[in-house]
Write a structure and sequence with these properties.
By secondary structure, the chain is mainly α. The protein has one domain. 65% of the residues lie in helices and 0% in strands. It has helices at residues 3-14, 27-31, 35-52, 62-76, 81-92, 96-99, 103-115. Helix 3 (35-52) crosses helix 7 and helix 5 crosses helix 7. Mean pLDDT is 80; it is low at 1-22.
């Protein structure tokens, strides 16, 4: 699983690696960043979703199943932060409703489209 790489990148974001660390960004602000900052932002958003903001979930819970499913999918497909940011950009084309919201929501929508939900594949 590539979570250690994502965790390192998330720490860089949290430590203040540029504009992406300081604010919640919508698509227009995020896509205007240099590619490496977009990738760091995606790494931080993914890491927050699966580790930092994950509530304590009992083993076998739907939330735990979902997070484990996404983690396995990301690792199995070799989706590092660079690949995910490119995927998010491609996924956002023609979806102004998703572009209007925060990047973490767009990232989760992209990952659900890419990986499906637990038990769906």
């Amino acid at each position: 699983m590539k979570l250690p790489t994502l965790t390192f990148a998330a720490l860089a974001v949290i430590a203040g690696a540029g504009t992406a660390a300081a604010q919640a960004l919508a698509y227009a602000g995020w896509v205007a960043l240099p590619a490496h900052e977009r990738a760091l932002y995606i790494a931080g958003a993914f890491d927050q979703f699966v580790t930092i903001y994950a509530p304590p979930a009992p083993e076998g819970s739907a939330y735990q199943d979902f997070v484990l499913h996404l983690g396995a999918c990301v690792a199995g497909r070799g989706l590092d932060a660079v690949a995910m940011q490119a995927g998010v950009i491609a996924f956002a084309v023609g979806r102004p409703d998703l572009q209007a919201g925060p990047i973490p929501i767009l990232l989760m929508e992209y990952l659900i489209a890419e990986c499906g939900l637990p038990g769906s594949n």
